[in-house]
Design goal:
InterPro entries: Tauto_MSAD (IPR037479), Tautomerase/MIF_sf (IPR014347). It comes from Metabacillus litoralis. By secondary structure, the chain is α/β, with parallel strands linked by helices. The strands form 2 sheets. A 4-stranded mixed beta sheet has the order 2-1-3-4, with helices on one face.
Length: about 130
């Protein structure tokens, strides 16, 4: 059950729904998650609250993916590469202006299905892809 947060400086006229659908499709293809999984949230930061270090592109985008652990290194690399390409194309920014981080808390640290630890309930998809 990946959860995606996209942090970016406030932009006018971007199709966030289309980007979210594209990212969700990538997760389904790469991570083999069920169709109903993969919420995508956009956190748009006002320009007055967006401070990049000198020399950094002002249009930087930061992507955080919170997901169950267990995927192979190659799978995670594919996810990062495909997310970067999709966001770069959608926002018309350089791939070098996108940083993606993957967070994989142990299943004991996930509360799902009414507050049960994910480690104690059956996960209905393969994590070892």
């Amino acid at each position: 059950m990946p959860l995606v947060k996209v942090y970016l400086k406030n932009r006018i006229g971007i199709d966030k729904q289309s980007i979210a659908i594209n990212l969700r499709n990538i997760m389904q293809k790469v991570l083999h998650v069920p169709l109903q999984d993969g919420p995508v949230m956009f956190l748009e930061i006002e320009e007055s609250n967006w401070f990049m270090p000198e020399g950094w592109d002002e249009e930087f985008v930061f992507v955080e993916v919170l997901m169950f652990p267990g995927r192979k290194k190659e799978t995670k690399e594919t996810l990062i590469v495909e997310f970067t390409a999709a966001i770069s194309q959608s926002l018309n920014i350089s791939k070098n202006s996108i940083i993606t981080t993957l967070h994989e808390p142990h299943l004991d640290n996930w509360g799902i299905r009414g507050g049960k630890q994910a480690s104690s309930v059956g996960i209905n998809f393969d994590l070892e892809v």
